[in-house]
Amino acid sequence: MDRVAPTTAAAMADHWNSRAWRFDGAASHRRDADAWRTVFNAALGGAPLDVLDLGCGTGACALLAGSLGHRVTAVDGSAEMLAHAKAAATEANLSIEFINATMDEAALPTASAEIVTLRNVLWTLENPSAALTLARKLLRPGGILLVSDGLWFRHRVNNSRDVFGAHLPFYNGVPEDDARGLLAGAGFSAVESWRDLIPGNLYGAAYDDPEKPIAFFILTAISPE
Ligand SMILES: C[S@@+](CC[C@H](N)C(=O)[O-])C[C@H]1O[C@@H](n2cnc3c(N)ncnc32)[C@H](O)[C@@H]1O
């Protein structure tokens, strides 16, 4: 199987380690849990299910799934992001298994999850299609993948382009049509959009253009039987 981040994993972990302290204050991370609870309730089915959150960051999706009664495992390559997630889970009295590893390194059992979530992670990956192939492998047949991402930048101007950006096919963000193509390519079907459940402009303006709202998508798809 192709690797998700063959050359950028260490730089990516450094990047998120340095941003962890301010991540939760940014739009929608843990802040907009109520809006995302509506989506999770509608899109993921009744608890308790085995949920795997890939690239969990500070734990927004993992905590939400846990609070809905799911059994949650959450993986991230950044120790600092995970430290925030662990502290939040402790504070919320939620039992979540956190794994500090990249998706390529985490020893996750095949066909062990009923739900995989990948929120705002595809854009950070060198090989997003490999992440969807991995998700398919980790899901039980008929399991649900929830994938969400947005069009974050138009002309990013910091050093991350030099450090890893040039290696990322969706460095400026993931268009919904591309995500749908990736899902089909990885063998997922029954793609459904849940975007309408979050009206308005959840993420505010594009980071480099105050006039331009960030477009985003929320899709689920079913893994093959
Ligand atoms: C933009 S944050 C999104 C965090 C979270 N999913 C959310 O919605 O708030 C991207 C996260 O993906 C993680 N990540 C990126 N590449 C990864 C990889 N190859 N393996 C594991 N985690 C990765 C980063 O460390 C970071 O915490």
Automatic annotation (TrEMBL):
MF-aspect GO terms: methyltransferase activity
Pfam family name, one: Methyltransf_11
Residues in Methyltransferase type domain copies: 52-147
Keyword Nucleus in annotation: no
Entries under Gene3D superfamilies matching the protein: Vaccinia Virus protein VP39
Superkingdom of the organism of origin: Bacteria
Alphabetically ordered keywords of this record: Methyltransferase, Transferase
InterPro entries: Methyltransf_11, SAM-dependent_MTases_sf
Alphabetical GO biological process terms: methylation
Name recorded for this polypeptide: Class I SAM-dependent methyltransferase
